[in-house]
Structures are given as structure tokens and as C-alpha cells.
């Protein structure tokens, strides 16, 4: 089987992640998968596998889960320590017809308890470390059974004890029924559970299949994104079907990343925007860890032009590019844009891209006040295509309130230029009176003050825009340099500096802006 044949099959029948490793092995059984850590569920497997071995491990784990009592249509929540075995276990659940519910290991026990209750008596697949975290959650009341991938606890079924269980035939879920459930970032409270079907997952591969076609050689793809995220499904699927060697990374620290990149020399790197910001310092590493990279890609959030420029200049590849995709869990990839070495530093960070080729999402910007959307009067950004998630699990009314026929409201505001570029200015919920775009201010100031590692403009207690900053090694900010950098933004309040470690973040490292704003409000109340 060729990768293109497998891809066409997915477009027709949907993406079933339980079948994907087997399909990829049929395309090329020797394609290597490397890890920067050991698998929790199979520590003896080592850090270098072939796709054929990977597929066999998935089949083995599917048999163990079946022996543990998991059956088709059953929802299985995976909440465990961050590890590449998360995706392997998700594929195993899918292989026996279960519905995968991915929960980030960054979620706290209270949030996990709420989501377990919403999912309604699922099986919980976890490990000893996370069971300790959930010690005060009434799992006996909220779950059907508890299975551990590593570590043993009273009342839980250890997968290790089910090794050698008889293999079972795969069960294929209906193309338009729930297959994988992920959650939103939770920047505004308890995350929403986003339901993906085989059809919606397969359709989302379309624009990215074309992007990977830019790579003519079978070079290594480095993936450093949360294993629980819907993006992981697409990233793994595309790389394996294209027969690219895969480097699956858990570690995000610059030192560890440099070591892996020097060793594996990836040509394609996918990572979170905040991780890429953290890795900027590696641009000056004499080992040139980014020297082999042809394509940098990020799909989670807008990224600052200065970061893209530094990374591209650290590549030795001719025609190196940074491809940014704007989207969200509910809609997948919506628009995209390529940035190049000679122009990335001059890019307008608010221009997130153009509609992608035929078969991808459609975009529109609609008025919020009856007047035509424009740069000075941004409208609501909406997306339409068959890749939109089916629903929010347990919150159908909430989902319906966000959907108008085929169009999905992203919650972002912006406008389109006469050339068709979509400019995303802010989340509607984060808009501040008197500020055109908080994100634009952040782009400009970060490009001027290289000592800043993060800048977030949030609404203060009196509706004033408050810049919250973090610096390299948490060194004190030079206020004279700050004032010179923000002369174009007189509406800004004085900056508030906090240690980088104190920034409240989501599982995908987005800053929780509302949490920061509440912090200032609470401080004001305490002073009153």
C-alpha cells in the first residue's frame, strides 16, 4: 500500500486512529519512530521503534484493554503522566471500538472530577502518579472501572498483568459517530469536551497533506506538542502515512531539545508557539540545532514575527519557511501563511493567513454592530467546512449557540484585507476598551525589547490595559527602555513584572488572560 492510497482511503472512510499504525506499517514497516523518553506502559520497548513494532504494540495493548473489560462504544478517559504512550493507548482504545477521551495531565483533580462526571461513567485509564493526584476524587462513583498503564493501586486493573492476552479483531466506528474527544484550553474556566468523528479527523488532514508535500525527501519530522491534543492525531497520521521518520518529544527545555535536534537533525519541526519562543536562545548555539530544519510549523496560537525570524535565520536550509496555521480545536486548521527568512521580521503578526486550497475551510468575518467589518471596526471570525467538530460532549446547547448553519463562531475578532488576508486582532472576551489589539501591542513591544520573554496585555480593575511582563532570568526591567518602546501606546498602564513561573497557563502553554485579570482585581479588593 502506498501512502497516497491510504490517504485517499481515509478521505473516503474517515480517519480511525486504531487502524492508522497498521495502515502505516503496510505503507512502510521500517519507518523509524524515535522517542526522547521511555514509554510508561512498555518501558522495555526502548526509544527507537519501527512502525511495524509500533503497530504490534498497539494491537497488544488493545488486547489487554479488551481483557480488562473495555468494549465498543465505551468511553475511556485517558488521564495520565505526559508520555508518548498516550497516543499509543488512544489508538489501542480506538482499535477495539472505544471512544477516546483525552484529558491533559496538566488538569487539576477538581477539573478532572467535573469532566469525569460529565462523561458519565467512563472507564478511567491512568497511572499510579495520577491516581495519587486524584486521591480525593470519588472515582468509585464517577467511573465504571479504573485501569493503570503503569503502577499498581488497590481496586485498579494493571495493564502489565494482562500481557499476552489474546489479540482481537479491530472494530471500526461509524464515520459520523464520536471517535476521539479532546478538550479546549480552558482559558475561561472548565474546559469544553470537543467531539471528533472519523470524518472530521480525516478531512482535517487535507491542507496539511499538501504542506508536507513540500518535503521531497524522507527526512525526520520532530513533533513536540501535547500528546492529548487533537493536533497530535493529525501530526502523527500525516507523518506516518508520508513515511517520514518521526521524533516524538516530551521534553521542552532548550538544552534537551538542542540535544535531540543535533542527534536526529529534523527537517520539519512542529511545536507550540510558547515552546518556540523559549527555544529562541538555541539560534546562537554553535552546534546549529536548527541547521537542518526546512519547515517550522505551529498551529495553536499566533506567533510573534521576531521569533519566526530568529528561527529561520538559524536554519542552513535554502528556502526554509515557517508555516503558521490559524485554527482551534473545534474547527481544526482554518487559514495558513508561510513566512520566509528575508521577510519574517517585517511581517504583521496579526495577519494569520489566507484560506487554503480547495477542500479546506472557508472563512468569513461578520459585523458585530451592523457596520461593515474593517480594521477600525473588527468583526466576528467564522469558519465553515466538514472538519468542524460534531458537538461539545454533554453541552449540546452550548455548541448550538456557537453555530449558525454551516458557520462556526470562533470567538475571535478581526477583519480581512482587500487581498484576502485574515487579520486576527483579539479574542472577543479579551478585548479592552481603547485598545485596538492587545496582541498587536505584544508583537510590537516584544520585537523592540529582547530582554522580554513574555508580554501579555490584560484588562485592569478599572478597564485600563495592564502590560504583564516576564524577563530573561527574571531580571528587573529597565523602565527607561520600556517607556521608549511603548511611546505609540500611551493608553498602557505601568508594567507589572512577575516571574515567568507565575504565569497561569493552559495545557498548550497559552497564558490564561482572564486569570491574570482576576489576580489584579483581587489585589485591589484586598487593598480596599
TrEMBL record:
Claim: Transferase is one of the keywords in the record: no
Lineage: superkingdom: Bacteria
Keyword vocabulary terms for this entry: Ligase
Transport in keyword set: no
GO molecular function terms attached to this record: ligase activity
Pfam families: AMP-binding (PF00501)
Domain AMP-dependent synthetase/ligase: 44-393
InterPro entries noted in UniProt: AMP-binding_CS, AMP-dep_synth/lig_dom, ANL_N_sf, ATP-dep_AMP-bd_enzyme
Protein name, per record: Acyl-coenzyme A synthetase/AMP-(Fatty) acid ligase
Organism classification: Bacteria, Bacillati, Actinomycetota, Actinomycetes, Kitasatosporales
Amino acid at each position: 500500500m502506498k501512502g497516497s492510497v491510504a490517504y485517499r482511503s481515509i478521505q473516503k472512510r474517515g480517519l480511525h486512529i486504531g487502524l492508522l499504525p497498521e495502515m502505516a506499517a503496510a505503507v512502510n514497516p521500517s519507518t523509524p519512530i524515535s522517542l526522547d523518553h521511555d514509554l510508561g506502559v512498555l518501558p522495555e520497548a526502548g526509544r527507537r521503534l519501527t512502525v511495524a513494532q509500533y503497530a504490534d504494540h498497539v494491537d497488544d495493548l488493545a488486547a489487554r484493554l479488551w481483557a480488562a473489560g473495555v468494549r465498543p462504544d465505551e468511553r475511556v478517559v485517558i488521564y495520565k503522566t505526559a508520555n508518548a504512550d498516550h497516543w499509543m493507548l488512544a489508538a489501542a482504545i480506538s482499535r477495539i471500538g472505544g471512544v477516546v477521551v483525552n484529558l491533559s495531565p496538566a488538569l487539576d483533580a477538581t477539573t478532572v472530577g467535573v469532566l469525569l462526571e460529565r462523561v458519565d461513567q467512563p472507564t478511567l485509564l491512568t497511572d499510579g502518579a495520577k491516581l495519587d493526584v486524584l486521591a480525593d476524587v470519588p472515582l468509585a462513583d464517577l467511573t465504571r472501572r479504573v485501569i493503570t498503564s503503569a503502577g499498581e493501586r488497590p481496586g485498579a486493573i494493571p495493564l502489565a498483568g494482562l500481557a499476552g492476552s489474546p489479540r482481537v479483531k479491530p472494530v471500526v466506528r461509524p464515520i459520523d459517530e464520536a471517535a476521539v474527544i479532546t478538550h479546549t484550553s480552558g482559558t475561561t474556566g472548565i474546559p469544553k469536551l470537543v467531539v471528533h468523528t472519523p470524518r472530521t479527523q480525516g478531512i482535517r488532514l487535507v491542507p496539511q497533506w499538501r504542506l508536507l508535500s513540500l518535503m521531497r525527501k524522507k527526512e525526520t519530522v520532530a513533533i513536540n506538542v501535547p500528546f492529548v491534543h487533537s493536533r497530535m492525531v493529525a501530526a502523527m497520521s500525516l507523518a506516518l502515512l508520508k513515511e517520514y521518520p518521526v521524533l516524538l518529544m516530551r521534553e521542552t527545555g532548550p538544552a534537551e531539545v538542542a540535544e535531540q535536534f543535533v542527534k536526529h537533525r529534523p527537517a520539519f519541526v512542529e511545536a507550540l508557539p510558547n515552546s518556540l519562543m523559549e527555544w529562541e536562545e538555541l539560534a546562537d548555539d554553535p552546534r546549529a540545532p536548527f541547521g537542518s530544519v526546512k519547515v517550522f510549523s505551529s498551529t495553536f496560537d499566533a506567533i510573534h514575527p521576531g521569533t519566526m525570524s530568529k528561527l529561520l535565520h538559524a536554519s542552513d536550509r535554502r528556502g526554509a519557511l515557517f508555516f503558521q496555521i490559524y485554527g482551534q480545536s473545534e474547527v481544526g486548521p482554518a487559514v495558513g501563511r508561510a513566512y520566509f527568512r528575508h521577510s519574517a521580521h517585517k511581517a504583521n503578526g496579526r495577519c494569520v493567513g489566507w484560506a487554503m486550497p480547495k477542500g479546506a475551510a472557508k472563512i468569513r468575518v461578520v459585523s458585530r454592530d451592523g457596520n461593515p467589518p474593517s480594521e477600525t471596526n473588527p468583526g466576528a471570525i467564522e469558519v465553515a467546512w466538514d472538519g468542524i467538530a460534531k458537538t461539545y460532549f454533554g453541552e449540546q446547547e452550548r455548541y448550538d449557540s456557537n453555530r449558525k448553519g454551516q458557520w462556526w463562531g470562533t470567538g475571535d475578532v478581526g477583519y480581512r484585507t482587500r487581498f484576502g488576508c485574515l487579520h486576527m486582532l483579539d479574542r472577543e472576551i479579551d478585548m479592552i476598551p481603547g485598545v485596538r489589539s492587545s496582541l498587536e501591542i505584544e508583537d510590537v513591544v516584544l520585537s523592540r525589547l529582547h530582554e522580554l520573554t513574555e508580554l501579555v496585555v490584560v484588562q485592569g480593575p478599572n478597564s485600563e490595559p495592564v502590560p504583564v511582563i516576564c524577563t530573561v532570568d527574571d531580571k528587573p526591567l529597565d523602565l527607561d527602555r520600556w517607556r521608549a518602546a511603548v511611546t505609540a501606546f500611551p493608553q498602557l498602564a505601568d508594567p507589572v513584572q512577575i516571574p515567568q513561573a507565575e504565569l497561569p497557563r493552559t495545557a498548550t502553554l497559552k497564558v490564561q488572560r482572564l486569570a491574570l485579570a482576576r489576580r489584579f482585581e483581587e489585589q485591589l479588593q484586598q487593598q480596599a
